[in-house]
Amino acid sequence: MSADIDEIDRKIIEMLKEDARRNFTEVGKVLGLSEGAVRRRVKNLMDKGVIKGFTVVLSKDYGVKAVTFLSVHPSVPTPEVADKLIKLEGVEEVYEITGTRDVMAIITVPSMASLNKVIEAIRNISGVSETNTSIILRQVRKS
């Protein structure tokens, strides 16, 4: 993280990572700050781009989670494929990677039938030459 983020900012970030619904008053009580001070710090962290947003984390029991690796034809720019991929319903994260594949996508959908539809949509993206999908069985460690 940037050098201009202090220990209090780090603690705020950690608390919000644990529970983004935690209100600023509660965070302030734990850290000995006013609600307004916490609000200003969070706004500052958002303005700096340190905090990019707040999200819903789905239960591990929700639906099917998979990782798909894609190869992109050399004549098509990889970022072009990645930009189309992230717009598909169920695709949560997209990474341009090194190695034998060019792109990796994390997919979460309610059913195997939904996963099949997403994979078919991925295969129909111009420039995708190959896919390899693995279903995630269990999360061992949360980062």
TrEMBL record:
The keyword Transcription regulation applies. GO terms for biological process: response to amino acid. GO terms for molecular function: sequence-specific DNA binding. Keywords: DNA-binding, Transcription, Transcription regulation. SMART domains: HTH_ASNC (SM00344). PROSITE patterns: HTH_ASNC_2. Pfam families: AsnC_trans_reg, HTH_AsnC-type. GO terms for cellular component: cytosol. Residues 5-65 form the HTH asnC-type domain. This is Lrp/AsnC family transcriptional regulator. It comes from Caldiarchaeum subterraneum. The lineage of its organism: Archaea, Nitrososphaerota, Candidatus Caldarchaeales, Candidatus Caldarchaeaceae, Candidatus Caldarchaeum.
